[in-house]
Design brief:
The chain has 233 residues and is of the alpha/beta class. It contains eleven helices and five strands, in the order βαβαβαβαβααααααα. Strands 2-1-3-4-5 form a five-stranded parallel β-sheet, with helices on both faces.
Length: 233
C-alpha cells in the first residue's frame, strides 16, 4: 500500500547580503535544505529589504541579514524591521561575532552566525524560524551575559515600553531618530540636518532620556515601535 506523503509549505526566507556571489551561494544551499521556493527573495540593499519586509505581500517568514551593507548599517535594518513586527531576524557576518552580537540583541535580532559555515546558517535559520533563538557556543563563552530574545519577546517588549511611557520628541529629535533608523552615522545625520556632530549627540542624549533607553539602538527601536503603533500600521 502506497503511503501518502504529507506536503509542507516551505519556509519563506528573505536574504540581504552585500555580495552577489554570497547571495547566490546562500540561495542555492538554503533551497536545497528547505526546499524549492524557500528563498522568497534576495537583495544587496538594506533599504530594499526593509521595504520588502514591511509589505505583507513580500514579507518572508524569516530574514537572513548581513551586518555589512553598502547603503545601511545592518543593525539599523534590524531595528527598522523589529519596530514594526515579530518576524524572526538572523544576523550573519564575516567578522568576529562579538563585534555585532550585542548590537543585534539590542536591536531585536534572534541570533548571529558566521557567514563561512553554511551548515550552521541553515541550522540557525531552522531554530529562529520556529520561534527560538540562536547562540553559538563560542559566542556564549565570550559574552556569557549576552541574551537574544525571541522575535515575539523583542516586539512585545518594544510595544509595552512604547505604550507604558508615551513620549513626545521634539521635531529635531524626531528627525535625528529618523536618520539613525535610516542607517546614517552621527556625522551623516548632522550633514542631513545641517547640525554639528556635538549638537546631534546632545539631542540624541535628550531623546534617550525621554524614551528611557539605555542605548541609541534601543532608543531608535522604541521610537519606531511607538511611531508605527500610533499610526496604526
Amino acid at each position: 500500500m502506497m503511503q501518502q506523503v504529507k506536503e509542507h509549505s516551505p519556509i519563506r526566507i528573505g536574504i540581504v547580503d552585500n555580495d552577489e556571489l554570497t547571495l547566490a551561494a546562500l540561495s542555492t544551499y538554503l533551497e536545497h535544505r528547505f526546499g524549492s521556493g524557500s528563498v522568497a527573495w534576495r537583495c544587496v540593499l538594506g533599504g530594499k529589504a526593509v521595504r520588502l519586509c514591511r509589505d505583507e505581500k513580500t514579507r518572508p517568514d524569516v530574514l537572513l541579514l548581513d551586518m555589512s551593507l553598502s547603503d545601511m548599517d545592518g543593525v539599523a535594518v534590524c531595528r527598522a524591521i523589529r519596530g514594526e513586527g515579530s518576524m524572526p531576524i538572523l544576523a550573519i557576518t564575516s567578522f568576529p561575532l562579538h563585534r555585532f552580537a550585542k548590537r543585534v540583541a539590542d536591536a531585536g535580532g534572534q541570533g548571529i552566525v558566521a557567514k563561512r559555515n553554511l551548515r550552521n546558517i541553515g541550522m540557525a535559520l531552522e531554530q529562529v524560524s520556529t520561534g527560538l533563538t540562536y547562540m553559538p557556543d563560542d559566542l556564549a563563552e565570550c559574552l556569557p551575559n549576552l541574551r537574544f530574545e525571541t522575535a515575539d519577546e523583542a516586539y512585545a517588549g518594544l510595544l509595552y515600553a512604547a505604550e507604558r511611557k508615551p513620549v513626545s520628541l521634539s521635531e529635531r529629535e524626531e528627525a535625528i531618530m529618523r536618520g539613525y533608523a535610516d542607517g546614517l552615522t552621527t556625522q551623516q545625520v548632522g550633514e542631513r540636518l545641517g547640525l554639528s556632530e556635538n549638537t546631534v549627540k546632545t539631542h540624541t542624549r535628550r531623546a534617550l532620556m525621554k524614551l528611557d533607553a539605555r542605548t541609541r539602538s534601543q532608543a531608535v527601536a522604541l521610537w519606531l515601535a511607538g511611531k508605527w503603533g500610533r499610526s496604526g500600521n
